[in-house]
């Protein structure tokens, strides 16, 4: 019976006591450990399985945490977490009160830089390396970045700067030809050529042209190759670039064969590797509703195109790509480019649906202002994963969009409360708006079984009264209206409470608000966005303008970053769940 190594590994110093010949066994055990836990606890599987050998080798040869590792995005850092003091709590990964699914500085001194969004690692590691040089230190700084992430503009900016320094920086390209979806673009094609032949690359290597000491490609699952090359690079000064070829999902057959599904597969059988069937919902995911509706509209309107930055499957644009390949664009991890590409198309009369997760749209803020809104170009932004997103945590909650978009002139902001509203606003937007519009909707399913109804145009800036009342008025935007609806239903005196779906955060339905201000002395606003600067703030501003004398309570996301947990758990913590809303109303009715 082979001896067990992982049980005695708690920190990288324990790995360094092993012989190089023992590392393959440690890799095997580490893979099994990750598979065993993620099979039931869920999480990002494929990326971590692909870098097991690389992770072990880095901690084996470098003096971490003095030598600093920066993981790009962080999907692939599970092995790193387990080997750096978190093995016994790894089962709490992404759970409420447990460890984060991404590297996090406050969690461990081995997590040198907090991540969750892509393409930050080279900039951060270069900053660390320059700071070390200023302070007279010669420690190593290593950025591990994937082939999808390195295609992003920020990564190129960092490479351009790093090549003009003598910083002690090692960039490791983890090249597996996939991010969440398969990598795209000319750089991907270039990397494929490097892997297949060196004949025309040796004289024209892009990384050597940027003044990096380039080496590779090497087999990222061969310890002998990895250790030998890392050992050599440790002695070379200045910026270095190591090209490592890996297989995402390595060690689990199904994860290797279906790398998209096994990026984050949910629960699966750890023996067979088969994903466990989920109870089929009678409801539809908002992302799928978007995907089906844009195809339906694209058949009617030949000017419609779909754009996404590396989220074809996540945004459900993959079906449109299959049906309309000339009108569907995956631009890679390049949110800034996606926005300005859409702006350029809009100048020519094309109708671009630019689908970007709410949290990732933050990366293109100047482009929204300078390239879209300032020129009043009718780009249709579809913000998937808006609001609380659950176990991905603080880096991924889409809670800032209402606030950061609301202050931009010319911008229309709409939050549908259900599937029908999402369909109808998509229909309305492609009829020919004169302004850009942001449509934000949540992760997960809606509440309606029958949503594929004939399209109806929505009047821009028009809210609706969902329920009449005489004492308290609740103003909501988006799908949080469901919680309000249930909370009111559970009241003994529900007739006292009115409920308005304002729908548009900008422009506000001021005519409806005037009626509400004249009819109620007690208002509650509720949103799954930040209370600072968001929908509630917009209502307060207009109330001040109208000299409203009543009280306004604002419910939403407080002025702090929200950790990971299920959406239901987080709503309870933030007092925007059904029971908390009910108790708030009852208190105001006393």
Provide structural commentary:
The protein has 590 residues and is α/β, with parallel strands linked by helices. It contains 23 helices and 17 strands. The chain has helices spanning 12-15, 23-41, 46-50, 52-61, 78-86, 121-134, 153-162, 186-196, 206-209, 223-234, 253-257, 286-300, 318-323, 335-347, 358-361, 365-373, 401-406, 419-429, 481-489, 510-519, 535-545, 567-573, 578-589, and strands spanning 68-71, 141-146, 169-175, 213-219, 240-245, 304-308, 328-330, 351-357, 380-384, 412-414, 437-440, 464-467, 472-476, 497-501, 504-506, 522-530, 551-557. The strands form three sheets. Strands 7-6-8-9-11-10-15 form a seven-stranded mixed β-sheet, with helices on both faces. The protein has a five-stranded parallel β-sheet with strand order 1-2-3-5-4, sandwiched between helices. The chain has a five-stranded mixed β-sheet with strand order 12-14-13-16-17, sandwiched between helices. Helix 6 packs parallel to helix 7. The longest helix is centred in the first third of the chain and has 19 residues, at 23-41. The protein is globular and about 75 Å long. The termini are far apart. The mean pLDDT is 94.
């Amino acid at each position: 019976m082979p001896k067990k190594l992982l049980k005695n590994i708690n920190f990288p110093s324990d790995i360094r006591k092993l012989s190089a010949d023992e590392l393959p066994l440690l890799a095997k055990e580490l893979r099994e450990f990750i598979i065993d836990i993620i099979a039931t606890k869920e999480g990002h599987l494929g990326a971590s399985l692909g870098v097991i050998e690389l992770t072990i080798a880095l901690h084996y040869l470098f003096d971490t945490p003095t030598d600093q590792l920066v993981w790009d995005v962080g999907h692939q850092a599970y092995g790193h977490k387990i080997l750096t003091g978190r093995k016994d709590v790894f089962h709490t990964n992404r759970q409420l009160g447990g460890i984060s699914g991404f590297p996090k500085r406050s969690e461990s001194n081995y997590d040198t830089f907090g991540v969750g969004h892509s393409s930050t690692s080279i900039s951060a590691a270069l900053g660390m390396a320059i700071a070390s040089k200023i302070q007279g230190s010669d420690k190593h700084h290593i950025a591990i970045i994937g082939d999808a992430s390195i295609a992003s503009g920020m990564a190129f900016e960092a490479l351009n700067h790093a090549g003009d320094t003598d910083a002690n920086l090692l960039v490791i390209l983890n090249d597996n030809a996939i991010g969440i979806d398969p990598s795209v673009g000319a750089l991907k094609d270039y990397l494929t050529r490097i892997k297949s032949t060196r004949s025309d690359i040796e004289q024209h290597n892009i990384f050597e042209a940027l003044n990096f000491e380039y080496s590779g490609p090497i087999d990222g699952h061969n310890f002998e190759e990895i250790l030998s090359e890392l050992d050599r690079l440790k002695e070379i000064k200045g910026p270095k670039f190591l090209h490592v070829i890996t297989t995402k999902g390595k060690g689990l057959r199904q994860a290797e064969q279906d790398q998209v599904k096994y990026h984050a597969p949910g629960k699966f059988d750890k023996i067979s590797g088969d994903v466990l069937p989920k109870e089929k919902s009678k409801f539809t995911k908002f992302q799928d509703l978007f995907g089906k509706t844009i195809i339906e509209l694209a058949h009617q309107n030949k000017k419609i195109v779909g754009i996404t930055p590396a989220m074809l499957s996540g945004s459900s644009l993959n079906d449109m790509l299959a049906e309309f390949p000339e009108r569907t664009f995956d631009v890679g991890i390049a949110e800034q480019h996606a926005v300005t590409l859409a702006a350029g198309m809009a100048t020519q009369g094309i109708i671009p649906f630019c689908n970007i997760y709410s949290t990732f749209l933050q990366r293109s803020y100047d482009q929204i202002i300078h390239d879209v809104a300032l020129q009043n170009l009718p780009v249709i932004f579809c913000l998937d994963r808006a609001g609380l997103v659950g176990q991905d945590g603080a880096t991924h909650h889409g809670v800032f969009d209402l606030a950061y978009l609301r202050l931009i002139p010319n911008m229309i902001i709409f939050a549908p409360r259900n599937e029908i509203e999402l369909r109808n606003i998509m229909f309305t937007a492609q009829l020919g708006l004169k302004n850009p519009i942001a449509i934000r909707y949540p992760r997960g399913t809606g509440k309606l079984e029958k949503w594929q109804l004939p399209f109806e145009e929505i009047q821009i800036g028009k809210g609706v009264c969902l329920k009449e009342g005489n004492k308290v008025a609740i103003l909501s935007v988006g799908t949080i209206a469901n919680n309000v609806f249930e909370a009111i239903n559970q009241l003994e005196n529900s007739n006292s409470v009115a409920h308005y779906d304002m729908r548009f955060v900008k422009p506000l339905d001021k005519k409806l608000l005037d009626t509400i201000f004249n009819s109620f002395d007690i208002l509650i606003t509720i949103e799954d966005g930040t209370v600072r600067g968001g929908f509630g703030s917009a209502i307060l501003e207009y109330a001040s303008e109208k000299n409203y004398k009543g009280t306004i309570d604002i419910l939403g996301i407080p002025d702090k970053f929200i950790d990971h947990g299920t959406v239901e758990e987080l709503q309870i913590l933030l007092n925007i769940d059904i029971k908390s809303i009910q108790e708030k109303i009852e208190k105001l009715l006393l």
